[in-house]
Each structure stands twice: as C-alpha cells, then as structure tokens.
Design goal:
The chain is α/β, with parallel strands linked by helices and 269 residues long. It has 9 helices and 11 strands.
Length: 269
C-alpha cells in the first residue's frame, strides 16, 4: 500500500507562554503541515526541568478550535495517566471539536518523576506495557459505544519500538506506528512488525509508519526551524514539498509515510 509522505510537527509545550505556542500552531498550519502534535508530560524534557510547561489534552482541545485543516493529536498520550474509557471519551470529544481531525497517539509511559509527583504507580516497564495491552481493547470498545459516535474511525498511533511486546500491540491495534529508529534498526523492527502481523493475519501495509527526523530539542530556534524545513502545500496536487526532499524519499523507500519534526519555542523568562 503506497502512501504519500505526510509531514508532522511536534510543538513541545515547554519553556514558553501559551500565546507563543498558539501562534506556533497557527504558523505550522499556514505552512502546510499535515499533522500537529504536542506531548503528554508534566515537566520539560529539556533545559530547565522545572521550567514552564503545559498539560497535553487541555491544549489539544484549544488547538482543535483554533485550527481548521491540520490533523492533531498527542505524540503520545501516556496510558497510565487516565482511565482507558475516559481517554476514549476525551478522544471522541476532541475529534468532534476538530471536525474529524484527531489522531489518538498512545504509549506506555516512561518518566518516573511524573508518576511520583502526580501520584501514579511507576512500576516496571513490563507492567506498564501490560497495562497498555489491557487498555487498548477497552479504548476501542468504548469508542464503539459512545453517543454521539466519533466522526470517523479515530486513527490509533502507538509509539515505541520494543520488538517483543510493543510491536505486537502495534500489529493488533495501531493504524500508525511511530518510531525513533532509522536505518538498520528500522529495517529489523519493520521485519519484526511484519512477523507479528502475519501471526494474526493482518497486512502490515495497513499500518502507516512515522519517524522523527530532527528538530530543535534544546529550544534555541523555535518555529524558525519549522520555517527552514519549508512545509508548503502545493495547489496543483496533494502532498507537501519539503526542503531536504531527498531524505524524505529515502524514508519513503523504507516504507515510512510520516515524517515528524520536533520544535521547542525559544525560552522565555
């Protein structure tokens, strides 16, 4: 199954006022970005670990109202932080607010400080993955029972690359697999994913593949970095034109159809 490469931007909700983040989201949509992501953390992941930071889902609801074309979602929502049935209801609500543009990104969670300070049990990586495996069917069942129903089948994105457990969940539940792997690790994981799909009779080509290719994780350049990567929608045909298109072509040949750039806004005092 051949897909055009889509471009996503992850705006890190840290080290900035919300007005700056809102302007960045609007600018990304103007530039022609296909998907706009934030993340589900409670503290910054870079720079001052006690710096400014905003909550994921409240922001997604605001973005759903403030944008009109771009798809949006968390990259990724931490399964441990919300009851799975509640999470499905939240996803359905943002789906309606956005007019059918929501993607439910989800993962098992990994930041121990967040669990401890917000009162969640951190446990082991295996236990968190087991919780995710239990949660995904509950999310799917709740989405089928909600009234009103979602405006579309909400795409489920699963983030991670664990070959024994995470990729088995991707094969069973995901519409999109998001990974940080490239080159040889990516080729190996793609093969493992295909094996998990074969075990349950699923065509692995049904799963869209997405990868982070760069961005400003240290917060020095903000939206200017997005601008340099020049994401502009062409009027004459669907899809995006990206500076550095040769790399996008290489990723596409590896079966990837989603490219995500990460950016953090310039720090404010």
């Amino acid at each position: 199954m051949s897909r055009p490469v889509r471009i996503g931007v992850q705006i890190s909700p840290q080290h900035a006022e919300y007005a700056e983040i809102r302007r960045a989201a609007a600018r990304a949509e103007e530039l022609g970005v296909d998907v706009l992501f934030n993340w589900d953390h409670f503290f910054p992941l870079s720079g001052d670990r006690d710096g400014k930071h905003f909550e994921c889902w409240t922001m997604l609801g605001a973005w759903a109202e403030a944008t009109s074309r771009v798809e949006l979602g968390p990259l990724v929502s931490c399964n441990s932080y919300r009851n799975p049935d509640l999470l499905a209801d939240m996803a359905r609500t943002v789906d309606h607010i956005s007019g059918g543009r929501f993607i439910l990104g989800i993962g098992a969670g990994f930041k121990e400080r967040e669990y401890v300070e917000y009162g969640y049990e951190f446990g082991t990586a295996g236990a968190r993955l087991a919780d995710l495996a239990e949660a995904l069917p509950r999310i799917e069942r709740r989405l089928e029972r909600l009234n009103p129903a979602p405006t579309r089948k909400i795409p489920i994105l699963i983030g991670g690359g664990g070959e024994r457990k995470t990729l088995r969940l991707v094969a069973k539940h995901a519409d999109i697999w998001h990974t940080f792997a490239e080159a040889e690790p990516l080729a190996r994981k793609t093969k493992v994913l295909a094996e998990h799909c074969a075990a349950i009779g699923r065509d692995p080509a049904q799963i869209e593949r997405s990868v982070v290719v760069g961005g400003d994780h240290e917060g020095r350049h903000g939206v200017a970095r997005v601008r340099r990567h020049a994401v502009r929608r062409q009027r004459s045909r669907p899809g995006l034109r990206l500076r550095g298109a040769a790399r996008v072509d290489r990723l596409a040949r590896r079966g990837l159809s989603g490219v995500c750039l990460r950016t953090t806004l310039r720090k404010t005092t």
